[in-house]
Structure formats: C-alpha cells, structure tokens
C-alpha cells in the first residue's frame, strides 16, 4: 500500500497533545458534536486525522479567547462554510468583545469593593472584621 496516500492518523493522546487539549476534552468535544465522531480501529480505539487535530486546535484557540462552546460551534460552522460572509464572523467577534467588556466591568467593580473592604480591615489581632461582616450581611 502507498503510505503517502494515507492520512496521518493519531490516537486520542497524540491528537490531544498536537492540539493542546486533554484527551478528556477531546472525548467531550466529540460527545457534544463540536468534533465529528472518531474513526475506530478494529479494536475500538479512536483514530483522528489532521482535519480533526485542526478542529481541536480551533476549539482550543477559541476557548483561550473566551468564547463559549456554543459560540465556538457557530464559529466552526462559519469556518466550514466557504460561502460565508466575513461580516458574520466579525459580528460574532464584536458581540463577544461586548460580553468581555461587561465581564471586565463586573470584575473591576468586585475588585473595588474588595479593596475598600480590605482597606477598612485592621489586619491585626482584633476579632472584628469588616470583610466578614460584609459577607455575612449579604
């Protein structure tokens, strides 16, 4: 058989390492449909090709940018659709930026509140603590 004609084949551990995700996440992405079902050997072991590894890399990068799995599913659909409009991809990215801005604002507000509580705490041997009082009050 001509080995140059065969696609590179990876077991689950190799596919995971090549894409930067764990084997557990490879199985998860497959179970939720982000990754097509793996081919199986006669012994039942999963086998992945380069296209699968590229999809896993795409998912990994999307997760690193904070996209949800649902959003990544939409982005994968657009990636696969060669007739897509780049405006659709841009719209999803801009919506995600708005979501990140909201999360950043929430985190900054939490930080300000906690900083104010920490500055009002004596931090000594006294038992009274404004931080614990605030937590108990809410």
UniProtKB/TrEMBL annotation:
* SMART domains according to UniProt: HTH_MERR
| Coiled-coil region(s) | 90-117
UniProtKB keywords: Coiled coil, Cytoplasm, DNA-binding, Transcription, Transcription regulation
Q: What Gene3D superfamilies does the database record attribute to this sequence?
A: 1.10.1660.10
Q: Where in the cell is it found?
A: Cytoplasm
Looking at the record, the residues that make up the HTH merR-type domain are 9-78
Q: What is its main location?
A: cytoplasm
- PANTHER family, from UniProt? HEAVY METAL-DEPENDENT TRANSCRIPTIONAL REGULATOR HI_0293-RELATED, REDOX-CYCLING DRUG-SENSING TRANSCRIPTIONAL ACTIVATOR SOXR
Name recorded for this polypeptide: Cu(I)-responsive transcriptional regulator
From what organism does this protein derive?
A: Massilia pinisoli
- Which gene is transcribed and translated to give this protein? cueR
């Amino acid at each position: 058989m001509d080995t140059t004609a065969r696609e590179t084949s990876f077991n689950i551990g190799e596919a995971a390492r090549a894409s930067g995700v764990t084997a557990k996440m490879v199985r998860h992405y497959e179970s939720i449909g982000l990754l097509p079902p793996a081919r199986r050997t006669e012994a039942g072991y999963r086998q992945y090709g380069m296209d699968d590894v590229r999809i896993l890399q795409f998912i990994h990068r999307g997760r690193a940018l904070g996209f949800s799995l649902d959003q990544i599913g939409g982005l994968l659909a657009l990636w696969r659709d060669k007739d897509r409009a780049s405006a659709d991809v841009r719209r999803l990215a801009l919506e995600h930026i708005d979501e990140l801005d909201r999360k950043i604002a929430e985190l900054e507000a939490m930080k300000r509140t906690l900083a104010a509580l920490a500055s009002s705490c004596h931090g000594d041997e006294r038992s009274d603590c404004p931080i614990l009082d605030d937590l108990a009050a809410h």
